Every structure is written in C-alpha cells, then in structure tokens.
C-alpha cells in the first residue's frame, strides 16, 4: 500500500485502521472538537488525541431532537448522530470548548444524553492579544491537564510535554513541507488529496502519522505532476472534514493550492515555541496561532495570512466557503469582500455548503462560474 | 387589516421601496413621538424609554461627544460612568419602524453578510451600511451571548476601522470567572480614557453604578409584584420598553425615574386587585424571546384565553436571584469594586446569563421562573437565527413537563420581522396549544 493509499484509508472513516490498532493494544483515546485544544496535552498523558468528525453520518434525525435543523450546522448534528449510533464508542473521553454556538451545544448534548467516560470543557478566550486572556487560557489548560491526570492516572510531566511538543512540531513541519509542494507550477499532489492528508492526521497517532508523511513526501516526488489546470485556487473559510468542494473544483480543472481554514493550514502552520514552562508555551503558541474567526481580534491576522498565501502560492482566485448557519465564517466573508482589493485577486461571493456532499450540482455551477471569471481576467 | 377573534393585527407594507439613506435616527424619533402622542395620555409614560434612548443618541451627536458603541450585554453604566452618553446602535435597529428594519436587514445581505445572523444585528449592519449610524470612536463588545455578536463586532470594527475593546466571557459562574471579567472591565476603563481623551471621574462612575443598582432593585420589586394573581402588570405593551430601559440605558437617571413610576403603577394596580383588560385564566411564561412586531398577539391571548404574559426572559431581568440590595449606602467604592459590580451584572444580564455558558443555566432559570411565578404554560418563540438558545428549547420543554407538569409550545419565528412568522400565523400556532392548556387547567381544577 502506498502512503497515499494508507492516508485515504485513515481519512475515509472514523473508526479507521489506526483506531482499531490502538484499541486492540488497550490504548485509551480522547476526542476533541477543535484545534484550540492542544493535542500535546492529551498525547503527553499517553492518550491518542482524536479530532471528532462528521464523516459518514447516516442522517441526523436523532441529533435533531435537541440540535434543531432550524439553525444548527449539519457538521455538529452529524457528529452527535454518530455518537448516538455508537460510532464513537471507542472514545474514552471528550474535550469540548466554546468554539462556536453549534459545537458547544453539541458537546453538551453528547455528554448529557449519550454519555462519555471522561468529559472536560475548556473556555477558550475570544481574543488573542492580552495578558488576561493568556492567563485565563493557561489556567483552563492547567485544569484540563489536572483532570486528565486524575482520570487516566497518567502524570503529565514536563519532559513528556516537551516530547509531545517536539513530535507535533515535527508533524507541522512535515505538513508545511508538503504544502510547499503546492508552490510549484505543476504540483505533485492535488489539493483534495492534501486535505485528506490533514483529515488523516487528526485521526492517527502522531508517531505513525509522521512516518507516513515522510514516506509520502518521498513517494509523491515520483508522481506525475498536475498540469494544464485552469486556475490556482485558495479556499478561505470552513470546509471541515468535507473534501467535496476541493474535489469539485479539481474535477472542473482547477487546482486548490492553498487555504485558510481549520482542517487546513490553520491547524498546523504555527509551531509551538518552547520558552520556559512547556504548558505556558503551549498556551501562548495556541492562543497566538493564525486565528479562527471566533477570535474577535483576529481578522487583521487572517487577512495578512491570506495575502501571504496568495503571494507564496501564486493564487489566481479565492473561494469563500462556509457551512450553512456559520455566523463566524459568514461575517469573515463580509470582511474579506471589503478587503478584496487588498488581496489583489478575485474573491468569490460566499459559497455556502450543506455538509455531506448533498448539494454538488449547485456547488459545481458556482465553482465553474468562478473559474470562468478568473479565466476572463 | 388582518384580524382574529375581533383583535386586529398590525398591517405592514413591505412592497414599497424605502429610501434607506434617510436620517433613520430622526425619522424613528419623529415616528415614535407621533405614535405615542396618539395614545391615551395616562399610558404614554409606558413608552418613555424609547424617547429617552433616541434623544440620547441625538444628544450625543449634537454635543459632538465621542461616539461609543456597546453591545447589549455590555451594560451602558460603564459608559455613563465615563461621563458620556452611550450610543445605542443596536437599539436603533430594535426601535426603528418594522418595514425599515426589514429593509435594512435585506440590504445587509446584499453586502455578503450571512442571512442566518441574528436579524437584530443584520438590521444594525444594514443601518451602518446605509450610513445611518454615526461612526464610532470606540466600541465595546462582549463575546456573550452568541456567535452573532462575536461576528458583528468584527464586521463593524472592520467597516469603520475602529479598534474595539473585547470583553471575553467565561463559560462558568465561578469566582475566577467573575474576577476575569472584572479585570477586563477595568482594562476597558483605560481603553475608554484613551479613546475619549479624559480620565475617569470616580464620583461620576460611582453615581452611574448606583443608578444601575437602583434600577435593578426596582425591577426586582416589579418582578416580585408579578407573582400576584391576577398579575398586576399585563406585560403585553411594556415588554419592549423594559428592554430599552435596561439594555440601552441602565445607569441613567431616566431609567431609574421610569422604573419608579412603573413600580408605583404596579403597586397601585395590585392594591386594587387589577390585572389586565381581561380576566386572568392562564399565566404564561415567554421563556425566551417574544414577537416584538405586534403587541396585538398578546391582546389576542388575553382576549381569547385569558392568557396573561407574566414573565419574559429577554426583557425582565428575571435572573436577579442573586439580588444584592445591601450595597454600601455611601457608595465610596474603589474602581476595582465598581468593576466587580459591573462584571456581575454583565454576566447575569438576561440572555447573556442563559446563553453564554452551559445550557443548564437556561434550564435552571426557566424552571425557577415557572415555579416561582406560578406559570401554567411556557412558550419558546424560537428566533430562527439564535443557535445557542434554540438548542436548549427541547430540553427545557422536557424538564418543565417532568418537574412542574408545565407544557411548552416551541415555534419558529423572527421576533423582529413578521415576514417570517406573521401575527396571524403566530396565533394560529398558539390557538390549539392554549386550548389544550385551558382544558388541562379546567380538568385539574376538578
């Protein structure tokens, strides 16, 4: 099996081969909702940190009893549905946070109505740049650390934390190396495949994942490059663990070369810089990473990051994407449109996805129109 | 004009294209004053908060004061305490004529704002995009109660190029959480000093906090009066005024004076055993929001079923279970102490308290209100863009039935925009529900 084939397997289901192997060896797993929860903390307790996803949910009817489809995003509903269907029975714990109104309520209902052996909630600040916020976040992570230690009887030492930081930093550097391939005129990997690499990464123990990434980096250099594409696209916004949009764009002949999204560059772009106490270092680095739109003082940073990506990856146009009912990415799109001239490339009107590939026809039409708009420039 | 059971509902004209580049503040002021003048003089005082809020905004502009926006969970006492008048930008969307509100909301969508944003904030953004708001010199936004507020802060900050002060809300109610907010409010005072170019005068700040405390105290007594049967305050008309007085103007003398009048009126009615126009047969709790666009809905409930709307989460500051009347009478508080008092209120202001954290806050409060105010039935009028509270609706319904035997109606609406669920459609949802509640009560009486 090639590295890419192995990655496709890991990214295509929730209970993938890495999960099965880990559980067969008696390992414990802790799920988390959002990349503002540091994997390093969970990993340093000897646990497998696993980002929950909505992949392959069979409808959302049971979740909808509490999480109304009137205004709750389908990603959150899908995850709770999977929990109802015992698809996440392998998790020994779950860490929630106030990432957004949808997922925080989804976490609460999962804990209340379905149950999980260990649950913890971190109130992550909505701002980056103050001492008060940093202290609050650090305290929140310290509480999580203590709770993990107590529940799993697993002391999290400073040395263990440093080792986990090194491991995840190596992971981030490998992903950045992979992303750098997209700078080439004829990249050796497609954006939709790269997205699957990232999805696999949050569902695989980091030791195995790093080895896989090293293999992948060797293998793809021998692959045939993607040529004759129509436009180089950057995706800004939310696609989550749904590769549909990237696949549509690439099936239409475009190439997705960059993104500003979670389950994307925002997850791995910034390393944890260790200065002094490792927990403090994690808190500082995570709070100051390229921010999600939930961070109320983060737009300038997101804009600058996007501009940098446009230039580095020779982007021809930006697709603004969000899942239905996401106010945070919705307003980010308003702001990006305000700054379209600064970005210097066409920026699409907001493209709203229904999670789970159910609106492919409409998305295709919108994507085709945008690609044509770029081609006519 | 649409009507049901001889109750006439408001008629709206959404077909006429409105000029949205008008001076919407003064237009609203003229309309509000005109409508109030047509009312019976004995009840004109009920609407005074609208006039006060609009006049304050005009005064802030006229006096060329620094313009300071605040979202509704940042109580304006902080701004009054700095010796300036708050600019109630969200309140303008709340008060302006419904047809204009709808048009501003629609306009915002043409500028790529999401259609699922809270419509109050879509309306606010629409007014901003039409140059209907004065450009702010400063903005204070809390991250509670919801994503819509978090998002709107960023849109306004970017649109106007103004650096906002953000009060990050904790999820829990611990001492540390309150200390965290206290610290941020103190930092906000420094931010305001910088933005408005003057230092805080402690006596002015103390006075604003004292007035706010007094307002909360008065509202506490008003809400206690509502425990009487019949409820001496048929809430149908006064609900929105309470919202304006508390969210928009708490910390002002106007709010204190108005609430004193309100309490006197309630006392007098209670002493005379007066309820609403119709005999009270059912006591209703609006456990979340209520339709703001047509008070005839409440009148219909009262006329058809004797259903009095006793409590309402969003406007009545029902939360005040931690009511603290015994502050030091001399009000010689330090800035730290004042900030702690303001933090306490900001975290507990209606909707903020119930939406910012775990859904149990909402559920516990709902059960408390319904038990203490002897409620027969609850209504969750689900504002369709309100993600955090909608997710608590079904659980609240189950808990109310399990613990108190109280049924709950859940329905979809936009509480500001009748194009989503009109008044006629609203009462159509209610009719079978209230029939069932009335029969249940009759059955239980036997």
Largest beta sheet of chain A: what is the strand line-up?
A: 2-1-3-4
**Count of β-strands of chain B:** 9
Poorly predicted segments of chain B? none
Radius of gyration of chain B: 21 Å
Domain count of chain A: 2
| Series of secondary-structure elements of chain A, N-terminal to C-terminal | HHEHEHEHEHHHHEHEHHHEHHEH
Biggest β-sheet of chain A: count, sense, barrel?
4 strands, parallel
Shape-level CATH architecture of the largest domain in chain A: 3-Layer(aba) Sandwich
Tally of contiguous helical segments of chain B: 18
Mean pLDDT of chain A: 96
Total number of helices of chain A: 16
Q: What is the strand arrangement across the widest sheet of chain B?
A: 7-6-8-9
Biggest protein-protein contact in the assembly = A-B, 48 and 48 residues
What is the structural class of chain A? alpha/beta
Main pleated sheet of chain B: 4 strands, parallel
Q: Give the termini separation of chain A.
A: 43 Å
Give the CATH level 1 class of the largest domain in chain A: Alpha Beta
Q: Helix share of residues of chain A?
A: 40-55%
Shape of chain B: globular
Mean pLDDT of chain B: 93
What does this protein structure show overall?
The complex is a heterodimer of chains A (377) and B (446). Chain A is an alpha/beta fold and 377 residues long. Chain A is globular. The relative contact order of chain A is 0.13. Chain B is an alpha/beta fold and 446 residues long. Chain B has one domain. Chain B has a four-stranded parallel β-sheet with strand order 7-6-8-9, with helices on both faces. A three-stranded parallel β-sheet of chain B has the order 3-4-5, with helices on both faces. In chain B, strands 1-2 form a two-stranded antiparallel ribbon. In chain B, helix 4 crosses helix 6 and helix 5 crosses helix 6. The two termini of chain B are 41 Å apart. Chains A and B meet through helix 5, helix 6 and helix 14 of A and helix 7, helix 8 and helix 17 of B.
